[in-house]
Amino acid sequence: MSSSIPSKMKAWIYNEYGGVEVLKFESDVAVPEVKDDQVLIKVAAAALNPVDFKRRLGKFKTIDSSPPTVPGYDVAGVVVKIGSQVKGLKKGDEVYGDINEKALEQPKRFGSLAEYTAVEERLLALKPKNLDFAQAASLPLAIETAYEGLERAGFSAGKSILVLGGAGGVGTHVIQLAKQVFGASKIAATASTGKLEFLKSLGADLAIDYTKVNFEDLPEKFDVVYDAVGEGDRAVKAVKEGGRVVYIAGAATPPGFFFVLTSNGEILKKLSPFLESGKVKPVLDPKGPFPFDKVNEAFAYLETNRVTGKVVIFPINP
Predict the structure, then answer these.
(1) Fewest CB atoms within 10 Å of the CB: 21, 89, 146, 294?
(2) In this predicted model, what pLDDT tens digit does every residue of 204-237 receive, in sequence order?
């Protein structure tokens, strides 16, 4: 153990399930141990995802690791220690990733909303050089979910897609990946009135105001519908015969399917050229980033369901 790594750290923690009020900012949390296949990251930035508040509310407590819990899935930071079996990373590497391989099954009790977090090497990738830590932290869970959903739906060049919730954390990346990586022929996406131009700036050909238009009543149907909101039956009405509907929220209606991301650093490595070229961009909500001592306020904002892109926490180790 190098002397520069303390035994205690600052972290956000909750000892019981509940609302934002169960979150506590503590300064004497034990720095996590590093297993053979893990690295210890000195955290520079973290991001919040809906899974963080659903977990905190106890929505999947039957398969969750039990509190006390330091929340946080998305991380960006610097490797300060490596386990004995780590091959591809070294001390000083700037990395990012989603620290929980399975989002809902026994996620780590020591998450990314802390000064240090321990993560398996296979879940991480080197941070693209053109992105700062806050931008990098915004990406992993959302961009991996976007990519895996498109892959599972068999999305490919020349196909059309409708993205429900196009301005959210996942939706912003579904639009960009469908266009830049997969070669979509047409991209439609839904959002509220003030976000339609933003959808077009991401690459949407058709921006649909869900406050005024029922997307399922449009005459045009799509090869793939990616539902990042949880529209259930409505989503199926917008898909072509033989098309696929991807759900990441709510209940799936056949022929749609529901999936939960498996975190994988290989996806981030594959997407690195698109991030480094600027073809795919991180999207951070303009209200952020929130400083480390305001994580409770960041959660409260996320839970309004009005966020554009991602809520990021930065700086964590100034």
Answers:
(1) 21
(2) 999 999 999 999 999 999 999 999 999 999 999 9
**pLDDT number for residue 3:** 55
What CA–CA distance (Å, rounded) separates 94 from 133? 9
pLDDT digits (tens, 9 = 90+) for 99-154: 999 999 999 999 999 999 999 999 999 999 999 999 999 999 999 999 999 999 99
Q: How far apart are CA 154 and CA 7, in angstroms?
A: 47
Mean of the per-residue pLDDT values of the chain: 97
Measured distance CA(95)–CA(133) in Å, rounded: 9
Q: How far apart are CA 214 and CA 212, in angstroms?
A: 7
- Where would I find the H helices in 105-186? 133-137, 140-152, 171-180
* Residue 170 contacts residue 178 (beta carbons within 8 Å): no
Which residue in the block uniquely carries the two structure tokens 């509310």? Answer: 57
Please name the residue that has the structure tokens 């020591």. 110
Nearest to 78 by CA among 62, 88, 90, 69: 90
Residue 241's region, left for phi above 0, alpha for psi from -120 to 50, else beta, is: beta
CA 7, 10, 15 angle in degrees (round to 5)? 100
**Closest of 144, 71, 154, 49 to residue 101, by C-alpha:** 144
pLDDT of residue 123: 98
Burial of 60 (0-12, 13-18, 19+ CB in 10 A): middle
Residue 194's pLDDT is 97
- For the chain, the first-to-last Cα distance in angstroms comes to 22
CA 1 to chain centre: 31
Listed in sequence order, the residues at least 6 apart from 50 whose beta carbon sits closer than 8 Å to its beta carbon are: 169, 249, 302
> 163-203, pLDDT tens digit by residue?
999 999 999 999 999 999 999 999 999 999 999 999 999 99
